[in-house]
């Protein structure tokens, strides 16, 4: 009986089979320098939203240009943690002195493309070594970093 209400999988030439679950279309995406991670796309019961799908298809090309913004935002998030803990500077894990050094201490968890605050938003969800309690969301709209949200829930 519940099969009547279940959306059929959606096949995409770039992402393969996408499955709708919890209101989003789910698949995976590989960005330069990252292992494949979950990809979450807005859409209706029939298919991912065309704009969300088009945006996701462009992400492997767009991500390198956005990397510096994400790097700077993550480093800015890191600095208060470093400054609050004097012993952190002695830790090889957290002896980060420049923004480009944050990458070994981060892990991309997911990429979501969905409407937020009136526009289609791309969110890169990161876990970081210095803040184990939160997932950070680097949110972009129209190719610009809106914010690094310090506490997001993976969709």
Question: Could you characterize what this model shows?
Answer:
The protein has 155 residues and is α+β, with helices and mostly antiparallel strands. The mean pLDDT is 90. It has a domain at 66-111. It has an 8-stranded mixed sheet with strand order 1-2-3-4-5-6-7-8. Helices cover 23% and strands 39% of the residues. The chain contains 1 helix and 8 strands; from the N terminus they run ββββαββββ. The longest helix has 35 residues, at 50-84.
Low-pLDDT stretches: none
Major beta sheet summary: 8 strands, mixed
Outline: elongated
Number of H- or I-type helical stretches: 1
Q: Can you give me a brief rundown of this structure?
A:
Helix content is 23%, strand content 39%.
Secondary-structure blueprint:
Elements: E1 10-12, E2 16-21, E3 24-29, E4 37-41, H1 50-84, E5 106-116, E6 119-128, E7 131-141, E8 144-152
Parallel strand pairs: 4-5
Antiparallel strand pairs: 1-2, 2-3, 3-4, 5-6, 6-7, 7-8
Annotation keywords:
single chain; 155 residues; alpha+beta; eight-stranded mixed beta sheet; 1 helix; 8 strands; 23% helix; elongated
